[in-house]
Every structure is written in structure tokens, then in C-alpha cells.
Amino acid sequence: MSNTNITNSTRDTWLRTVGKEVFLRLAFLAMLMEHRKIVLKGGTNIKKTIVSDDLESLAQSYTENEGLTGGTKTVLALPKFGWKYFQLPLEYGLREELENHGAPSDVAPVDLVETLTTVAHKSARLKMNSMVYGDNGGVATDTTGADFQGLIAALDHSVTYGTRSRGTTRATGNLWQSVSLADSWTDQDTAMAASIPNLRALVSRCRRYRPGNAKLYCIVGEALFQQYQSQIEARHFYSREGKAGTLAKYGFNTFEIDGVEFVQESYLTITSATNAHNTSYYPPTWMFIIDPETWELRLHPKRALKMTGFTWQGDQVGGQDKWLARIMAAGNLVCWQPNANCFKSNVT
């Protein structure tokens, strides 16, 4: 006994508003949408061929009568990421059905469709944000774990990523590691002052292997956002309004330093203060510098936050007199070039 009217109305409202109320309400996902990096595609896993080395060591300077050398090197790699899944159940019971469904607007306590959709929007936002910034209780997983892989899994210096190990030398760390100012790939947690010179040093490193002055975003909590904001106001090069094509147009609190758009991510501050919605603790000292062109949120077309119909649960022995629908997602969040991005965990 499905409730066709509620199903059709809620599903239609969800599909029409999920982009605006979920993706464009989250700073990181809005950034990916702006750069067209949310991809609907299936497959056995998520993989992409990348250039992992160069042929410089095979180049030869020679004299007129000298023989020419040959040689080969492996310059391509194929990082792979597995599919991750989550679902969000939506339920309403007999009392909600009798009080709201088919009742006149002056009698029904709530608009059931609007309420279900609004709650689903907020819940999906919290879940997506918890995966983007989550570190699974302090351990950023790669091939294990059920959550979508987040920024920590991609940018943590010590974690294998995309089934590829990461080293701590110039030869092994330059490509598949995130930025290290000391080129040690062990300085992620080293204390760093929240100063503009330090920011410029990090930005230069992010752009070292991405020529063309790529657009970068700096995602921080409220305290660091205000700290940098105060510095640039004092220096009289404060640009309060974001330019066209940046996250300011989606309603986020932003400003720019040297073309890098700072974005205030209040979710980090809220979760840090209340430890709500996630088992992780987000310190106010976290800073992410992101090149969105190196990222991809892959969603399977069959599970791109799609909603099933509401189905009555009482048609089996022991079933309850309630209706259940689910919002289903399958995908992963991956970075194809970690060395164009930066994560610092101790910025004060």
C-alpha cells in the first residue's frame, strides 16, 4: 500500500531542490559544481590514468660523434577508488498520515511534503559535510571504511591514497602528496602563524605543479576567517565582494587575498564546538587550500541522491503501520592531483 500522492509530491520537490538546497549550500560542493566537477558516471570502480613521472632523466646532451642513448620509464599510473554508499531514511507514521494527508490547510498541523523535504535537505547537507571533512575518528581511510573519502584522506601526508603509497622524499612525495613547505611531508601538524606571508608560501607551493595561475580556494572555520579578514582590512586591500564565478554569489561569506578566495565554513566551527553530527573533532586551526580542477565528486547515475517511493511497512507480519522512503547515494570524493592542494592542521 504505497502512498502515491506523497511519493510523487515529495520526490518531485526533492529532485527540483536538491541541487540548490544541498550541493549549493555546502562550500566545498558548491565549489565543485561551479567548476563542473560533480560527475555522474558508473563503472566497476573510480579510476583515471595520470602522469606520474617525466622523461627528463632520459634526455641526453651529446657531441657530434657520440652515440645516442635510449631508454624507457613508467610515466603513467592508474589510481583506483572504490564505490562508497549511504542512505537517508524518511519515515512518517499513522498519526502523521491521518492528521495531514488529505486534510484542509487550516486543519493539517504541517505540510507533510514540505516538512519531509526540508528535513531531508538539512540531513543530507550534514551527512555530506561530515564525509567531506571527516577523518573517521582520527584515521583517514583509503580503501576501507564506508564513508565517502574526504579531504583528510586525500591530503594527509601519511595515508595511502587511491591504492598508491606515498613517500616522504622529493622523488616519492612531489606528485601524490599534498603540499609540504619543508619538503619533508611530515610537517602537516607543525604550528604555523595565520599570516599573509605564510599563506603566500603555501599558495606558491600549490601552484608549483599547476601552471596557469589556477583558481584556488581557502576553506577555514570562523576564527581563522576573521583573523585573516582583520589582517587584510588593516592593509587596505580588502575585497569584500566576491567576483563573478566565485562562491560569494551562492551566499557564502568570502573575501580574496591575491586572487585566493577565502570561504568561511561554519560547519567546521559548529562541529568543533558541539561535536554534533560526527564522531570527529574539528579543531579551529584547520586550513585547506583547494584547487577544484584536481577534484571530482563521482556519483553513480542510479544513486545520485535519488529518492525512492514511500512504501507502507505493514504488509508483512510484524510490520509497523508507517511509510518509508530512502534517499540513496553511491559514489566517492577523489583528488587526482594532491600536490596542488594543501591541508594544515595547526594554523593559529
Name the poorly predicted regions.
none
Q: From N to C, what is the helix and strand string?
A: HHEEEEEEHHHHHEHEEHEEEEE
Count of all domains: 1
Radius of gyration, in Å, reads 24 Å
Structural class, from secondary structure content?
alpha+beta
- Distance linking N and C termini: 58 Å
Would you give an account of this structure?
- Helix content is 28%, strand content 20%.
- It is α+β, with helices and mostly antiparallel strands.
- The chain has one domain.
- The strands form four sheets. Strands 1, 6, 11, 12 and 13 form a five-stranded mixed β-sheet that branches. It has a five-stranded mixed β-sheet with strand order 8-9-7-10-14, sandwiched between helices. Strands 2-5 form a two-stranded antiparallel ribbon.
- A hairpin with a 2-residue loop joins β8 and β9.
- The termini are far apart.
